[in-house]
Design goal:
heterodimer; A: about 210 residues; alpha/beta; four-stranded mixed sheet; B: about 250 residues; about 35% helix
């Protein structure tokens, strides 16, 4: 059973429907007991980093998530959920993250300005994946250059150890990240057509 | 590389896909679930659904259709039509929409965009503008293109961005349904003034129109209805043509 964490951030309809579509049982929950007994955990999220951490904390979910991660349960952060896996974010102030992956979250815009690149923010739309770690189990159904759907204005930096795939948007944006049983997708696999469903299947097949 | 998006738009009335010309003469086209699946299979990058139903029963039917599409088609879904309040946002988001498009609702309720952006994030709020030329100026129209609001479209677009809209759809009433190409002049005027993604709508008649459209740097996506619904232009063929002509598209 895949547990999709419900902490009042974002739309969980599509992510639960996409697991159902690929034949995986899933539950949308904020119940620590249900989360602890899940075979896989998905941390979704849209919106602001600081807000999301506050909500996770207020819901009392963080100790349970920490425990699941250290017990080796496959854990996938999606979009903002991926950013929360890192140590810190500089989105409207400085905020501590969950710290499961090494690195920090920065706004894209100032880095584009530094390089004199004019691109719209948010980075919104379908962009192609460049796979750096072809052996990563999350990428078993994914081919080089496949397109996935992004919507974000911040990205992970100082995180070279965890990068599995990137996309190019003026800067190299970490798109898929992993360390042990912890995985992240900066894009929305549940909105990325067949390619996204393939990534969710690869995640669900992990044990 | 980020790609240019091709977006079919489905106007839904009483559970069916319909299409009008210059916002009038509405005709029945197809079943929305079948048509959505067809577009997904032929490479549409997103789908837009406009609920043009007036009755309560029709609205319930609409959210049912939306949920069914969202359970089968895993690409971004935008929903618009009679969105007047944050509660309306909530309603369609829970039924499976990813983004919500506001039009007349934002004119009547000036705080709607800001409230919704704060609650759901900018990426969720699409400002859709029906624009026509009046005395040489671009004006915002309300009520499905029937009522001149007197609002200047350039100001309106900039205000929308400042209030937190994450995307802009520009429907040219002057070119809608006429199939003689997108309103490039209008798109450029408005595109120059905003830095959020811009979706062009109104006037697509042949594949070349999309090539010309994407020569404008400020345009991120092309939206059309009639030409796709009639199957005169299949999205997979359109994308192949665009790719051959150097336009980055997802194939």
């Amino acid at each position: 059973m895949v547990a999709i964490i419900d902490y009042g951030v974002g739309n969980l309809f599509s992510i639960s429907r996409s697991f159902e579509f690929i034949g995986e049982k899933c539950v949308v929950t904020n119940d620590c007991k249900v989360i602890s007994s899940a075979s896989h955990i998905v941390l979704p999220g849209v919106g602001a980093f600081g807000d999301a951490m506050k909500k996770l904390t207020a819901a009392g979910l963080i100790p349970t998530l920490d425990e699941c991660v250290s017990n080796g349960i496959p854990f996938l952060g999606v979009c903002l959920g991926m950013q929360l896996l890192y140590e810190k974010s500089y989105e409207y102030g400085t905020h501590d993250g969950l710290g499961y992956l090494k690195g920090e979250i920065y706004p894209i815009q100032p880095d584009l300005v530094d390089m004199n690149i004019s691109l719209k923010i948010p980075h919104m739309g379908w962009n192609s994946l460049k796979i750096l770690d072809k052996n990563n189990c999350l990428m078993r159904n994914t081919k080089e250059g496949e397109y996935v759907y992004f919507v974000h204005s911040f990205y992970a930096k100082n995180c070279s150890e965890s990068i599995v795939a990137t996309t190019e948007y003026g800067v190299e944006v970490p798109a898929v990240t992993a360390c042990g049983n912890v995985f992240g997708c900066q894009f929305h696999p549940e909105k990325s057509g067949k390619c996204g469903l393939g990534i969710l299947s690869a995640f669900a097949e992990l044990s | 590389m980020i790609t240019k998006r091709i977006i079919p738009c489905l106007d839904i009335r009483d559970g069916r896909v319909v299409k009008g010309v210059n916002f009038k003469n509405i005709k029945d086209i197809d079943d929305p679930i079948e048509l959505a699946a067809f577009y997904n299979n032929s490479g549409a990058d997103e789908l837009v659904f406009y609920d043009i139903t007036a009755s309560f029963e029709g609205r319930k039917l609409f959210t049912g259709i939306l949920s069914e599409v969202a359970s089968r088609v895993f690409i971004p879904l935008t929903v618009g039509g009679n969105i007047k309040s944050v509660e309306d946002f909530d309603h369609v988001l829970k039924a499976g929409a990813d983004k919500v498009s506001v039009n007349s609702g934002a004119i009547k309720n000036p705080t709607l965009i800001a409230e919704a952006a704060k609650k759901y994030g900018n990426q969720c709020v699409v400002l859709s503008m029906d624009v026509a030329r009046v005395d040489g100026k671009y004006r915002i129209f309300a009520k499905g293109g029937r009522e001149d609001t007197g609002i200047d479209a350039l100001d309106w677009a900039m205000r929308g961005e400042q209030n937190g809209a994450g995307e802009l759809v520009l429907n040219s009433i002057d070119t809608d349904g006429v199939r003689k190409g997108f309103d490039l002049e209008m798109l450029e005027e408005i595109g120059r003034r905003v830095s959020i993604p811009l979706i062009a709508s109104g006037g697509a008649g042949k594949k070349e129109d999309f090539k010309t459209l994407f020569e404008l740097d400020c345009v991120d996506a092309g939206l059309a209805a009639g030409i796709f619904h009639s199957k005169e232009l299949i999205i997979s063929d359109l994308k192949k043509y665009l790719k051959e002509n150097g336009v980055p598209v997802r194939i």
